[in-house]
Amino acid sequence: MPSSKTKQSLPDSQKAGVLVKTSLVDYPSMVACTVFLRGCNLRCPYCYNIPLVKGGSDQDFVTTDEIKAHLLKRKNVIKGLVISGGEALLSPHLKELILFARRNGYSIKLDTNGTLPDKLSELLADEQLCPDYIAMDIKTTPEKYKSLLNPVSKDFSPEYIIRSIRMLSELPPEKREFRTVLVPTLIKEDDIKSIAALLPEDASWFFARFLNKNCLEPLYNSLPPYTDDQTEQLVSSAKKLIPGASLR
Fold this sequence. Notes:
Strand content: 15-25%
Largest sheet: 8 strands, mixed
Helix content: 25-40%
Shape: globular
Strand order of the largest sheet: 1-2-3-4-5-6-7-8
Mean pLDDT: 92
């Protein structure tokens, strides 16, 4: 017989995602906790959050009740809640968590991949649901996103990425940022220029190095990242077009 101390498996409907109880890096200038919600409509080959993307039964998943309990317990220490993914806009738990956190005085940051502009617009239009800060990941140029889609994701147009960028561009600069991982197969010099043409000139555009380990597509574990010189060149090219571009 299994030990009574063994953690019981939760029904899929109750598994919200993974909770990082304290983070000093996910919310600019704020101590926060981060929730990575399950499910994603993309299958980025370099993604390392495989259980979140594929929805596997990972024992580290927590329920919304556990997330709420943590927010109540730490509300005198933690000031921000970061809701990420997967793709957070797909989660049935998103609105519930935003409303609960807001009622308890938290500032809310949303991470999104920009493929769901209608859902993003719905949040932005609602005073109670509108995040205080939004970070949008830009994987590559909009026309290349089809190669990244989950095979079951049928509804997609490159225009969705452009619409999401435009919506965020209307926010004050201090309330949004854009992020790009320097994956050699997805981001080259021409891609930098194409993406920059879509961004507002006052954008904060943060680049991250590609890490070739624990990738969703095993072949990417052997893909060499850009060298330091190549990385510097790409970021420098971006900075000429978007002054707020930098390597994070």
